[in-house]
Design a protein that fits this description.
single chain, about 90 residues, alpha+beta, NE0471 N-terminal domain-like, 4-stranded antiparallel β-sheet, 3-stranded antiparallel β-sheet, 3 helices, 7 strands, about 20% helix, about 30% strand
Length: about 90
């Protein structure tokens, strides 16, 4: 089983800063989800910013959610991002 989300912070550009139960941190880009009707409400930043953690996943008030496995597997881990900026 993949680690679960323990904390979330919304960022500009429809991204989420995630903390996982194994201590890792990652950034998940939600912009590709906006094309789907179920996630259309996320286009408004005031609503997007209402994201919360529930049972290891991220959720919004109207019950939109993203699977914890997807969040872990598809997020760019902070350590990966730092390696990209090294010469």
């Amino acid at each position: 089983m993949n680690p679960r989300v323990t904390d979330v912070l919304s960022l500009e550009g429809y991204r989420l800063l995630l903390s996982f139960s194994n201590g890792e941190k990652g950034i998940y880009d939600c912009s590709s989800l906006l094309q789907f009707e179920i996630f259309s409400g996320l286009r408004w930043y005031t609503y997007f910013n209402k994201v919360k953690v529930c049972d290891g996943a991220v959720v919004w008030p109207n019950k939109e959610d993203i699977c914890p496995d997807t969040l872990y597997l598809e997020s760019k881990k902070i350590s990966e991002l730092s390696q990209l900026t090294l010469p």
